[in-house]
TrEMBL record, chain A:
This is Sulfur carrier protein. NCBIfam families: thiS. InterPro entries: Beta-grasp_dom_sf (IPR012675), Mopterin_synth/thiamin_S_b (IPR016155), Thi_S (IPR010035), ThiS/MoaD-like (IPR003749). It comes from the Bacteria. CDD domains: Ubl_ThiS (cd00565). The lineage of its organism: Bacteria, Bacillati, Bacillota, Bacilli, Bacillales. Pfam families: ThiS.
From TrEMBL, chain B:
SUPFAM superfamilies: Activating enzymes of the ubiquitin-like proteins. CDD domains: ThiF_MoeB_HesA_family. It comes from Anoxybacillus tengchongensis. This is Adenylyltransferase/sulfurtransferase. Keywords: Nucleotidyltransferase, Transferase. Residues 4-240 form the THIF-type NAD/FAD binding fold domain. It comes from the Bacteria.
Amino acid sequence: MYCIINGETIHLPAHVRTVAQLLHHFHIHKKIAIVEINMHIVPKEDYEHTAIADGDRIEIVHFVGGG
Amino acid sequence: MNRYSRQQLFAPIGEKGQQCIRKKHVLIIGAGALGAANAETLVRAGVGKVTIVDRDYVEWSNLQRQQLYTEDDAAKQLPKAIAAFAHLQAINHDVVVEPIVADADARVLDRLVARGRPDVIIDSTDNFDVRMIINDVSQKYDVPWIYGACVGSYGLSYVIIPNETPCLRCLLEEVPLGIATCDIAGIISPAVHMVVAHQTAEALKICIHAPVNRKLVSFDIWHGQYRMIDVQKLKKDDCPSCGKTRTYPALQYENETKFAVLCGRETVQIRPAQRREREWTALISFLQQKGIQVVQNDYLCSFTVDGRRFVVFSDGRVFIHGTNDIQEAKKLYYQYLG
């Protein structure tokens, strides 16, 4: 499936079906990520069971500590 | 000629806004790359007072991006707050600059905010332990703060207004362990300046009581990405920092990250407040890319950087061998383990 992630069209392998799997796919720890799908923010407790679909516009922001 | 004329010509500020800015007190936590740039911009803009807190001294590796400092500061190993003070006073003597050479722990920050009553706190730190303390102090004394952070070419910023916006704990829940730091992944100056541009713009708005940007802003200046996410729905009524029943967890001694010298072993032990699994996959792959040998088993991983051996346990504890100096260990810990 294809999703628009942070403004870029990206092909995702078939096993990536939920937000949790998506973050795992990009090696992003779920505790430090904020995820928005089609302009709706996804609460952290819903990552495991929130499905992603072909054509979704997904924004992923991850926190960093440097400065 | 009025030195602030160009800023006053900018309609949203104007002469009235400038008068307002002149009366404001900004507390900047950290005088590294973010702190130096935030301080310079706000001192040039003519805020009334800047307090800048930092525990570190100027080193050669700082000069690539920490814009206030010179080779002379590095040669003399001046404390960053002191070097910043001298340069900021030379830039604008109208602004009262208060340098504080101290580790910004819960006690120090609580006192600084209670006593100094700043109008806004700007985060220029390099770790989440301090950010969570800033977050709680901000709520306790009802002072807005502006989060800012960067690594590599990536950065982000977010404004927290007590009783209005979600706080950092609403967004993060706990202090992340083992995420990328500038000492591992590097940092380029443009990423610093992009973060600071956002922080100082929001700080000026707070100074003149204009509405702030309530979105979480993030960008990658190298890859041309920029996004804003509306996080207002993430505000939690039961948040221990900003919710109905508050305990300000980061201000409690038992929740501090503890640093202790292990007697007779030339070792400092670092123990995060809660036992929890440390995420070290990313750290290990970074170290290996740099050709640093990492020994790993089910319980710990160890490696040597800067002539110091780090042992990182899976329960979150860390040993730094080869030093008895807590301040040095603290600096190394946050530099490499975030």
